[in-house]
UniProtKB/TrEMBL annotation:
Family: Belongs to the cytochrome ubiquinol oxidase subunit 2 family.
Keywords: Cell membrane, Electron transport, Heme, Iron, Membrane, Metal-binding, Transmembrane, Transmembrane helix, Transport
Top-level taxon of origin: Bacteria
Pfam families the UniProt entry points to: Cyt_bd_oxida_II
Keyword Aminoacyl-tRNA synthetase tagged: no
Record protein name field: Cytochrome d ubiquinol oxidase subunit II
Transmembrane segments: 6-35, 81-98, 119-139, 159-181, 201-220, 226-246, 253-279, 299-326
Primary subcellular site in the record, as a coarse category: membrane
Subcellular location: Cell membrane
Upper classification of the organism: Bacteria, Bacillati, Actinomycetota, Actinomycetes, Micrococcales
InterPro entries to which the protein is assigned, alphabetical: Cyt-d_oxidase_su2
């Protein structure tokens, strides 16, 4: 296989990992107003991702770095054209990270409520904008013969892009609430299961509309792997329904697992719909960025391949070990005991 095509799939793998892992982080953050009835319950919710949120976030840094090195033309067009959207995502992630670190620094309800609101905003905004961005990349945006984006931020806010944003926000929200139900006990876990049931139904409806639109668009535009897009979209729909049923039966682990594979299948469906382009041009097909005309030299890709072969298994092993170490539930009794010891 040509190395450029290999790296197209490696970059796709990194984005899949990011959306699965940071996706439930976003969902947990967005669930705070619904599940945090008091300070202890809010601490339960936040502590479910306390040891892992920053590790999950590094996936997008690695994905961006690989995109820059493997597909410099794609990186340049994407980051210049989607500058405002990506800047808003970056600022929201900074806001969320600061809030995680500072909310417990003062024993003041007003102080904590302020940072909790920033966690919600810093989780919801990236989830929405990532969906808008990915949907527009797959659909195609105005690009001229110099590989430059000729639209604006408002160009991205088209019906398909907005539906993609809402779908990703709801998918991440439901995914995060499954994680809260899996990682907590007592009232918070019970509330999370009920919330996931309601959110899951809405996600199924909106997600089905987006996946159908994606499949129809892929066939209409004659994408090479449109049939694989249809298959993966169907798999994603089945898995999403399976996660909702598992949650209704009180099987939090199965619900979270099916939810994770729903995201994997949905993102892969979009990736297959994109192939062999990396940024289709809505201006003229000949102006599109493809895997071949947007990639780096074979020498660069060869060095990157050896580095990935050595370091990627180590990173995956370390992340797996981290999740194993922090696998226990966050119980209300433990948080109350810790608060009593401090005071």
């Amino acid at each position: 296989m040509d190395l450029a095509y290999l790296w197209f799939w490696i970059v796709g793998f990194l984005f899949v990992g990011y959306f699965v892992l940071d996706g439930f982080d976003f969902g947990v953050g967005m669930s705070l107003p619904f599940l945090g009835k008091d300070d202890v319950s809010r601490r339960q919710v936040v502590n479910t991702i306390g040891p892992v949120w920053d590790l999950n976030e590094t996936w997008i840094i690695v994905a961006g770095a690989c995109l820059f090195a493997a597909f410099p033309h794609w990186y340049a067009t994407l980051f210049s054209g989607f500058y405002l959207a990506l800047l808003m995502i970056l600022l929201a992630l900074i806001l969320r990270g600061v809030s995680f670190e500072y909310r417990h620094q003062r024993d003041s309800p007003k102080w904590k409520r302020g940072f909790d609101r920033m966690i919600v905003i810093g989780s919801a905004l990236p989830a929405l904008l990532w969906g808008v961005a990915v949907a527009n990349i797959v659909q195609g945006v105005p690009i001229d013969d110099a590989m430059e984006f000729t639209g604006s931020f408002l160009t991205l806010l088209n019906p398909y892009g907005l539906l993609g944003g809402v779908t990703m926000l709801l998918l991440f929200f439901t995914h995060g609430v499954y994680f809260v139900a899996l990682k907590t006990d007592g009232q918070v876990a019970a509330d999370a299961r009920r919330l996931a049931g309601r959110a899951g139904l809405l996600t199924i409806i909106v997600g089905a509309a987006f996946l159908v639109w994606t499949v129809v668009m892929a066939f209409a535009q004659g994408r090479e792997l449109a049939m694989m897009t249809a298959v993966l979209a169907a798999v994603a729909a089945v898995l999403l329904i399976a996660s909702w049923i598992s949650n209704a039966r009180g099987r939090e682990g199965w619900a979270f697992g099916f939810g994770a594979f729903t995201i994997v299948s949905a993102v892969l469906a979009l990736w297959f719909a994109l192939f062999p382009y990396v940024m289709p041009s809505a201006t003229a097909p000949e102006f599109s960025l493809t895997i071949e005309n947007a990639s780096s030299t074979d020498y660069t890709l060869t060095i990157m391949s050896w580095a990935a072969l050595i370091f990627l298994p180590l990173v995956l092993a370390y992340q797996g070990w981290t999740y194993w170490i922090f696998r226990k539930r966050i119980t209300r009794a433990r948080i109350e005991a810790a608060s009593a010891a401090v005071h």
